[in-house]
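Standup notes
- DV: blocked on the single-chain target, sequence here:
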Amino acid sequence: MMKKIVKQLIEKSGGKITFKQYMAEVLYHPTRGYYTRSKERLGSEGDFVTAPEITSLFGELLALQMIEIWHILGSPNRFQLIEMGPGTGRLAEDILTTAKKFPDFYQALSYSLVEISQDFQKQQAIRLQKAGVKAKARWYDTLQSAGSEKIVGVILGNEFLDALPIHRVEQTAEGLAEISVQLSQGEPFLETTLTPLTAEISADYMTSRHIVLEEGTQTEIGLEGEKWVEEAGSLLERGVLLMIDYGLPQKGYYTPERRHGTVAGHLNHVRVDNPLDHPGEMDLTAHVNFTAMRDAGIRSGMHLLGYTTQGWFLMGLGILERLERLSSKEDESLAPLKEAVMRLILPEGMGETFKVLALGKGMDGAPLSGFRLSEQSEKL
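- DV (later): unblocked, structure below
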């Protein structure tokens, strides 16, 4: 079905669409997109696993970070936590059940889930109902609707930015060109082709950022991510934009080692290098350029609060101390938990690949505990 939808879109567009258009269609088509249709996506039965699915400690520690931010803001009577793309609702459940142990904070907390998938919304509601915290939750389709009033609190994106549609480009002898998608003569039925840059991308996008690409290099430009960060900054009155995702600072993003870019598919826990394979059937993501996200945040009036790896961030929040307290019981059943924690923090797991970026307003320069052990903003 998605093949037919993509084919019709290409034909209506004169034979070519940008990769950004392709990615938006196969992921977010209203009824047949990867994120909008009914399908197992997360966990062992799905295509990929996120940190909240690995252990509840991830959400518990994030809840503690939220409480610290609430205190820094002066413990306001209403503290809004907006989670973007909350998936199965596991992170929301873990944050809310932890927050419930802190009555003053829990009373002030308003939890907003921004979710376009009706299927995921149902899963989230069922999960939060079973956990006894559904009364604290509200659902929205967009950040704009969730933040219709100025936000005092936190906007949280865990593995959200990587799935926003990106432009793919190639450096040619004549300059930067757009990588577009067209129909092929056989199978696979799609292939890429080079076209002039769309109006969205400035011809000097790379040079204005002091980025030099070798001829033949293919890479991504995440304009949708930049726009989203700017929107978040415009809606945030006081508080923090907290982004956790796999990505790189700019100086590590546009390098010869990544001459084919970072975009990839994920199907049944296997990486698929050709993003045109299995349209609508697999996840599509690209690494986040965290330098570009920082710059977008600053343009919208936010200031940098911290940048580090996920491993250091979780250790700053006390994940090893928490594990040590649990391990003192000498319970053999804790072995899977230890394995899960190591997966989250070790470089060979998610600890180094995933980064954490915090931008804020009205935080008075107060440091966040997640960055206390290793603050790496100089890398941006």
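- Follow-up: Residues 163 and 285 are 5 Å apart (CA to CA).
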